[in-house]
Amino acid sequence: MRKKKILKLTFSLLFILPLLTQAQTPQVPAELEFADMIIRINPQARREIQLDVDALYRNPSYFKVKLDRVNLFMPYVERELKAVGVPLDLKYLVIQESGLIADAVSTSNAVGFWQFKQGTAEEVFLRVDNQIDERKNIVTSSRGAGLYLKKHNNSFDNWVCALVSYQMGLGGAKSYFGNRYNGQKVMDIDRNSHWYFKKFLAHKIAFENQLAILTSSRQRLVEVKVQGPTNLSTLAKRYQVSEDHLKEMNKWTSNGRIPAGNFSLFYIEEVSPDYQPAVIKSQPEPKPSPEKATTTLAAGPMDAFPKIEGNTQRATQPNQITINNLDGVQAAKTTSVEQFADQVGIKERKLRRLNDLDSDESIEAGKYYYTQKKKPKAAVETHVVQAGETLWSISQKYGIKLSSLKAKNRIRKDRDLKAGMVLNLQDHRKRGEDIPIVKINQTQRVAQAKPEASSPTPAKEVSTPKSATPSAQSSQLSHTVSPGETLYAISKKYGVTVDQIKNWNQIGSQNIISVGQKLTIFKP
Hints:
By secondary structure, this protein is of the alpha+beta class.
């Protein structure tokens, strides 16, 4: 009798488990958003795409291994695509191309994360030689893929066509599509649509709801900037990981040697069980400890700067951290520029030049200083001046040259700064255009404010930009983020802009939201 019950239970499980697996498999919708387009899928194409989605989910163990890789590398893919102006929806293409395996090689000898042939790689400024193969570097290859896709989209003004051209080449895609889809914002997918895009949709549907879900993996990928010539053996000691681990994570260097130049080095760091990669939170400065390297995360467009990455536990030592993606170091104590220059191993004159320091200035404990030339523009468009800030402190905050900051805003002296001024960090202010001033709520900073058009009159106080402050007639709502939702989709749902949602909820420049997060919406 007992044996019959066991057999009955076994048969029941064999029947139920496939149904459970099927219930967890995403279903292909009749309509979805892709980039800035609406994609409508007819029933026959939905069945075809669903077969590919089901195949990706068929082996749970294999899917989990791939998902762990996706969660490890995808933040860097997103960062690089965004930097070159490519919609983040195209990030799923890297999963389709290589499964995020660094040294993947196709039958046509395409190599790396994004499957570049050597000639194409060199077209998008990737280095491929007997020392370095940047097709196997997640940062450089993603940047190259973004440039390639953006260039092709310039010909079509249609990201579907641009994506298919990744497989066919620009000439092949032009022959295939002609110009009938140029500029189209709605496309219908059916049995005759190109197989490569349908395969892409399968990967997007399969993975988009999974990226915000934590897997059992408690690891994150750390990027540090290193300057050659050096080797992995030396770097392994510096970052307290094994040389074999660095070789595994940095297959872009073929022989363990890094030639002269600046390169991104990667290693995996174990994180605590309460680590939440989908949420960027403000954290206090870590206390020095030789045991472990960490990456500092910060919240909000303004509060995210300076962006400190690398071995932050040894930030006071040279070649350990980057500041806004530039080499830098933190001052352990207040001292003279001469003594600090000796400590970090560069000439005093160069240190002053890199950090826009006058001859009578000293180094202040706790502040960050650059050991690499600052940039002519910042990663964000604007900065709202806070009380007590100086032109120099703002230039250091964003890694922008002091002379560039002054020139962009036609302002020369600190005495001309006023709290609430909206300074340009990328574009030069037009001649005769005054710097607008916004009201600052001291308990909630206005970040990346978009100044309203101003007439050429003396600087005066204007109201906070519409993107940052709701009108008196607005109704406040609360939206709970669902799996797969994006800021763009939420903005469309409520008839507001992405920038408004970011400002209302203090969301950083990375556009990161998490499943279950409560967002405040002021609906017009």
